[in-house]
Amino acid sequence: MTAQARRLAPHPGIAYPLIRDAPLARFALVWRTAAETDLIRTFASVVTELGPIVL
Fold this sequence. Notes:
Blueprint: H1 3-8, H2 38-50
C-alpha cells in the first residue's frame, strides 16, 4: 500500500509498514460503464486535461 493510500484509508488495528525501496505505484481512474453519468465524464475529462501528477 502506498503512503498516500495509507493516509486515505486508515483502519484502526492495522499497521501499514513503509517499504522504502518499492517501485512507484501507478493508479488509474476507472468506473463501471453502466454507471457512467455526465458528472463522471466531466470529472474524467478534467483528470485527463491535468495529466499525471509527479509526487
